Amino acid sequence: MAKNFEIAVFEGDGIGPEIMEPTVALLCDLAQASGAYDFTFLKLPAGAAHYAKTGESLPAASLASAQSADAILLSAMGLPHVRYPDGTEISPQIDLRKAFNLFAGVRPVRVSEGGLTPLKMAAGRSIDFVLIRESTEGLFYTQGKGEVTHDEARETLRITRDVSELLFAFAFNLAAERKHQGRGSGRVTCVDKANVFRAFAFFREIFDAEAAKHPDLKADHAYVDATALWMVQKPWDFDVLVTENMFGDILSDLGAGLMGGLGLAPSADIGLKNAVFQPCHGSAPDIAGQGKANPFAMILSAAMMLDWLGTKHGVSAMNTDAQRLRTAVDAQVARRADVTPDLGGTATTAQAAAAIGDALLTQT
Ligand code: ATP
Ligand code: MG
Question: Rounded to 5 degrees, what angle do the CA atoms 237, 242, 248 make?
């Protein structure tokens, strides 16, 4: 009997629905072909367009349905001209992060052979590491609440034992899973600035305590400045990097740059129970409705969802299918055929996604 998963779907704004529709279709095809798992998709209203219509950006009913779903798939939300009365952007994805305590921001950085990257890559070399950004505290703790007087401004760096323990346990589990899948060397690097800040020495101590529980995995430390250098000089050396909120914010954009752009950058925000999978890019209103949107970041985010669900529920066919999706996207990018204009091609969103579907049928 196929195991059924309920997936909350936020189609969102701008290009959101255009990239979500073919992604859901691919997931249905994979599930059907596999027979080992199955999905019930639950489309939920939220976002800037919904706010403009109803005055609500994330209705309570949507939040409740998302909370009880097995996973949340989100495309992109927000539109530049739709804002709350205080002028801030509509961003229900941030509300979800807070409401469900999604402490681990997972940003894979992958460049396969023939992939797009501004780096010179030797033949046969590929990049495949994961950056985990703590997403609930750190240097974002006082976000919008810092103390400012005429002469001085202060913000707080907050690192707590509870969140750090969860974060590092997550990082080591991910490294173990990647090693098991043959994707990583089983190494976790704690990225900090422990030479200058006591808070980061504290962060490092908690990391070391978690590392001691995983003698089968390698653990090391790196300062954030050196990490930025190495991400450019030798990114193929990394496996799993785990870091504080602000450092992760900055390094994940560097990671997207390494991959050759936003159209290929997936992400996940993961908590103890819930998880949101969404592309790193925004709703790209400048190209909405024109069939130009690149669906690959959304498709790669769906692959992350397959991996997460497959590992959590012991359905290995889902991990296999996640890898099949990545392989199909990599091959299409390497050929530069059936890719959208942002990757230098002429394909429409639908054509690019349909070619992935065709590749899945013929993959060996
Ligand atoms: P947000 O603030 O919501 O993160 P943003 O303002 O940073 O969004 P995006 O919406 O991500 O910006 O768009 C930035 C640029 O990248 C735009 O020119 C957009 O058209 C382009 N872009 C983003 N996503 C895609 C995509 N999937 N396919 C093609 N182009 C994209
Ligand atoms: Mg923006």
Answer: 100
18 lines ligand 1 (CB under 6 A): no
- What's the CA-to-centroid distance between 169 and ligand 1, angstroms? 33
Q: Is the CB of 297 under 6 A from ligand 1?
A: yes
Question: Is the beta carbon of 286 within 6 A of some atom in ligand 1?
Answer: yes
Q: Domain 1-100+273-364 is of which CATH architecture? A: 3-Layer(aba) Sandwich (3.40)
Counting ligands in written order, the one closest to the CA of 94 is 1
Ligand 2 mean position to 249 CA, how many Å? 14
Q: How far is the CA of 93 from the centre of ligand 2 (A)?
A: 13
Task: Give CB contacts under 8 A, 24+ apart, made by 164-167.
Answer: 164/134, 164/202, 164/203, 164/206, 164/207, 165/206, 165/210, 166/103, 166/104, 166/272, 167/103, 167/104, 167/132, 167/134, 167/242
Nearest by Cα to 45 from 32, 36, 55: 55
Q: Which CATH architecture has domain 106-264?
A: 3-Layer(aba) Sandwich (3.40)
261 CA closest ligand 1 atom index:
16
pLDDT by residue for the chain (364 residues), tens only, comes to: 899 999 999 999 999 999 999 999 999 999 999 999 999 999 999 999 999 999 999 999 999 999 999 999 999 999 999 999 988 899 999 899 999 999 999 999 999 888 889 998 888 889 999 999 999 999 988 877 889 999 999 999 999 999 999 999 999 999 999 999 898 999 999 999 999 999 999 999 999 999 999 999 999 999 999 999 999 999 999 999 999 999 999 999 999 999 988 899 999 999 999 999 999 999 999 999 999 999 999 999 999 999 999 999 999 999 999 999 999 999 999 999 999 999 999 999 999 999 999 999 998 6
pTM of the model: 0.94
Ligand 1 atom index nearest CA of 284: 10
- Segments making up each domain of the chain, as ranges: 1-100+273-364, 106-264
